[in-house]
Amino acid sequence: MAFAPKIITCLIVLTIYLVSPTKSTIQCGTVTSTLAQCVNYLTNSGPLPSECCVGVKSLYQMAQTTPDRKQVCECLKETGKEIKGLNTDLVASLPTTCGVSVPYPISFSTNCDSISTAV
User: Residue 21 pLDDT more than 90?
Assistant: First the structure.
């Protein structure tokens, strides 16, 4: 009888281990506020503030799971549509400019469903 609880415990642990998270913990409001300092730069309205790169690096650190990266991608695409005058070349090069290596293109045409944490 003492063996049954051990099997159940093992099955629960195995199930938790095998089931990967399918939902992001990052909200679009977080993405927007984290990158708010970048808007003037990305619309050719000002220099690149250091706070922008701090935000880029912070967002990169937050988005470590596939669902989080997909969510960030979707949020960026949606938010970007609302900002008039975005320079898409500056948007695409922003991670590199800030010293962050992103393994997928930053573009309105990026298929967010194809993004994963595998590099």
Answer: no
